Amino acid sequence: MEDMAVLDDQSKTCVVLGGRTFVGRCLVMRLLMLGNWIVRVADSAQSLRLDPSDYKYDSPLNPALSTGRASYFHVDVRNKQSITKAIEGSSVVFYVDDADSCNNDFFLGYTIIVQGVKNVIGACRECKIKRLIYTSTADVVFDGSHDIHNGNETLLYATKFKNVYSELKAQAEALVLLANDIDGLLTCALRPSNIFGPGDKQLLPSLVDVAKSSWAKVWKRIGSDGSMSDYTYVENVAHALICAEAALGTRMVIVSGKVFFITNLEPVGSWEFSLRILEGLGYYR
């Protein structure tokens, strides 16, 4: 990786753990478009398989791979050695895991999400990484039954979580925050809510499935009860991650060891949001 540094004396090397996840892909694109980052894309696949979107004229990933601006590392977060290999020599680690990483299997989820974070933190400390930015979820403060109005970062973790994933993410987030300012590592965590946008393979497909099914009318009656939710466009999440990294370097006291909710700041009715998305896709109410 030393050869890549000669591309630009001003370039910084970062690692995007989970670089082929929904948020990870968007983050990689934005980092490459900034032009001052050498990006290591790290994910669980044995090798990098580019999608058709990666070959588009305006996609920076394929050209970056050919010039050395980007590279790929196979990483299993359950194996600290593979993490160390990917992050050694970099200055920043963005950690974005996959929401499908546990599928309600507590043991599997624990080994990937919680033990994985422990391994990432340990590898960062050993490799003298300067900054670690973790993508958490707003659901760590939501119990699934009590509404939250105008919530902020003073909210405590939920005492009862709505699913296994949220509980494990809360544990992982706490470990990241506790690791702040140990062995020179600065950390922070972001909590986006209901991420959507191009490349979404969870929220959008589920809406389309309902729109195609005979359950659509029933779902409308259930979803039009006035409930409001926060949503976050995926590019806003990627932008927030980059801002968090910059803030850790310049406003350490305000940001390090802290958590931040990231949303579009436009709470909207769940059914109304769904209708807007589906109408944009040609499914009319």
TrEMBL record:
Residues 15-283 form the 3-beta hydroxysteroid dehydrogenase/isomerase domain. GO terms for molecular function: oxidoreductase activity, acting on the CH-OH group of donors, NAD or NADP as acceptor. Pfam families: 3Beta_HSD. This is 3-beta hydroxysteroid dehydrogenase/isomerase. It comes from the Eukaryota. The keyword Oxidoreductase applies. The lineage of its organism: Eukaryota, Viridiplantae, Streptophyta, Embryophyta, Tracheophyta. Keywords: NADP, Oxidoreductase. InterPro entries: 3Beta_OHSteriod_DH/Estase, NAD(P)-bd_dom_sf, NAD(P)_dehydrat-like.
